[in-house]
Amino acid sequence: MNIQEKQQEVIEEFAMFSDWMEKYEHIIELGKDLVLIPEDQRTDENLIKGCQSRVWLHAEKNEGGKIQFSADSDAIITKGLVALVIRILNDEKPEDIVGADLYFIKEIGLGEHLSPTRSNGLASMIKQMKLYGLAFTNKQS
Amino acid sequence: MIQDSYIEDIRKSFPILHQKIHGSPLVYFDNAATTQKPIGVIKAIEEYYTRLNANIHRGAHHLANISTERFESVREKIRAFINAQETSEIIFTSGTTDAINLVAQTWGRQNIVDGDEIVLSMLEHHSNIVPWQMLAEEKKAIIRVIPITQDGEMDLTQIDSIINAKTKFVAVNQVSNALGSINPIETIISKAHAVGSKVLIDGAQAVSHFAVNVSKLDCDFYCFSGHKLYGPTGIGVLYGKKELLEKMPPWRGGGEMIKSVSFERTTYNELPHKFEAGTPNIEGVIAMGPALDFINETGWELFSENEERLLNFVTDELEKISDLRIFGKSKNKTGVISFQIEGIHPYDLGTLLDQQGIAVRTGHHCTEPLWNFYQVPGSVRASFAVYNTLEEGEIFIKALHKSIKLLK
Questions:
Q1: Which of chain A's termini has less CB crowding within 10 Å, N or C?
Q2: How far is the C-alpha of B159 from the C-alpha of B145, rounded, in Å?
Q3: A28 pLDDT higher than 90
Q4: Domain check: are B234 and B151 in the same one?
Q5: Closest chain B residue to A28, measured at CA
Q6: Residue A40 is part of a domain; what is its CATH number?
């Protein structure tokens, strides 16, 4: 599946929920599947400091030239949101990550989490993932 | 005994409260961040732009005269509100932060020298820390901090060594924004004056809860924001004793603050205009009038009774929740309750409460040193106002239980 298809899958998945509780229950569940950042990478350098919850993010390029992300957060809803974004962008080529339009976030009614006033670090995390993509693209060429 | 019908009547004056958020009726428990505005305030802003708009203190025309009159009448209303001696002791600023910076940059830069001590407390908001740090850095002064007890009260056991002969300035809040503790500022003011220090009281969280009397307090400076006092944003007040304000140099230069300007020599205007350079927030000041009318007409008794019963109810209910820790257990506190649940991040709780229409504050509330003291990243803070009902307290507790179930 490419980024587009994965987003479509998430949108369909979230369409099944009839109320906010089910939606957030699902987000929390998704957080449990997150590939956790290795202990030695849980450094201040890899910390994306939002105002309230903290997110650690690490990226590596595998032999196939695709990026593998790992992350963690001290807030479980943030962790679920992080897992959701990683599900879309993980195992993709750096240039595809840089160019990705993550429209699914608004589609599933989580757009408010992207607002800087929510200060949960999600917006800055997406920015950081794209920066990783850019850094790996440059290394390639 | 408080009548629910009184509160219902008050709520009718606050249009913003009657709406749904994410499908549920709004429960606004973030009043320590900003209070909502009664209809009188909203109408005053509208009236200003539809009928009164003119620049004040200058035009010879009718609108300029009326605007100036309305503007200056609010200055007098504020003088009466905090019982200052003279109207010229009331300086309009953009808010509490602006007022504190004004004092730090004028009185502070004029009087603080190498080795002087500035006393703050562990309970201060960043806005009553950073301006003094900036000043201390420039002047090589030393910041000293009044500690607190586990209950979130100022610990005065060492006060005579903290406030000492080297102390030049003391800046503390009257009520803690994060915990709601009402601080023993009377003692602090008299200790400071005994060693010849001046005192600034940050009243941002105090003025909306009880009557403040600056003459009786005898503080040298007192400041607060309009938007936490049922008034508009972008307007605040600095009260200063006249003899101090007169000796202080102006801060911002520009129109309004001058008597005459030539390239050789400029003379400054008299108080309070000396500190009010440029066109002020005219509609903000004018709309503070109806905010104060609202408070005066409602009466402090109703404010404190209503907040107290909500505080007691919510505190009792929170204490029943396992692993829940309340920060700030002062017996003397306003309608603010700050708490954390073991294993649950405040941000997660805030997000789920928001989904149920409840507005609370989560995080460090701009008081990072305080949370470092408690060794937690922050808290969930519910803060009450005169328009909040017991029923809203019940909705909040129910929503909290629902959120905890989801998060644990």
A1: C
A2: 10
A3: yes
A4: yes
A5: B407
A6: 3.90.1010.10
- Please give the pLDDT value at position A140: 59
Q: In this structure, which amino acid lies at residue B43?
A: K
Domain count, chain B: 2
CA distance B9 to B4: 9
The reply to whether B278 and B167 lie within a common domain is yes
pTM: 0.93
Query: In this structure, are strands B90-93 and B167-173 parallel, antiparallel, or unpaired?
Result: unpaired
pLDDT at B66 exceeding the cut of 60: yes
3-state secondary structure of A119: coil
The per-residue pLDDT for range B302-311, each reduced to its tens digit, is: 999 999 999 9
Q: Which helix (H) or strand (E) holds B259?
A: strand B258-261
Catalytic positions of B are 366
CB contact (8 A) between residue B346 and residue A52: yes
Report whether pLDDT(B146) > 90: yes
Each residue's pLDDT tens digit, B24-38: 999 999 999 999 999
ipTM: 0.87
Separation in Å, CA of B204 to nearest CA in chain A? 22
Which residues of chain B are within 8 Å of residue A76 when distances are taken between CB atoms?
345, 348, 407
The DSSP element (H or E) to which B223 belongs, if any, is strand B221-225
Contact A120 B347 (CB under 8 A): yes
Q: How far apart are the first and last CA of chain A?
A: 25
Return the structure tokens found at B253. 């230069």
The total number of structural domains that make up chain A? 1
CB contact under 8 A, B352 and A75: no
Do residue B72 and residue B128 come from a single domain?
yes
User: Three-state SS for B401?
Assistant: helix
